[in-house]
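User: For my dataset I need records formatted as: sequence, then structure tokens, nothing else. Please produce one.
Assistant:
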Amino acid sequence: MKHSASAQWTGDLKEGAGTVSSQSGALKSLGYSYKSRFVDETGKSGTNPEELIAAAHSSCFAMQLSAFLAENGTPGQVDATAVVEINAGAITGSALTVEGRVPRIDAAKFTELANKAKAECPVSKALAAINVTLDAKLV
């Protein structure tokens, strides 16, 4: 299976701007710029590659953890966040945080399965060159 996205950029790095679109249409001519990537951390000036990686990482991880919880007989709800960091022009880390509302499981087993999901989700594997951390909490 293959999935795709495309990007367009016009102008130089600092004054130029672009759009990104995805095959599904979930992203359609979504704007991005130097400001949205390196200056404005509020997210109000558009998206950026790191935000899109964070979305991919958090959603992949949540799906993988849910699969492991179901295999354990304890499906529930997980809320995952990824914070991707860029320093000196390089992506240096992705910090995963997950809270689970899962019946019939203890905190140790939840953490074990969360760590397994962190190691085995395809996006985590793709991000093997950076530091990926995990904070897992059963609520």
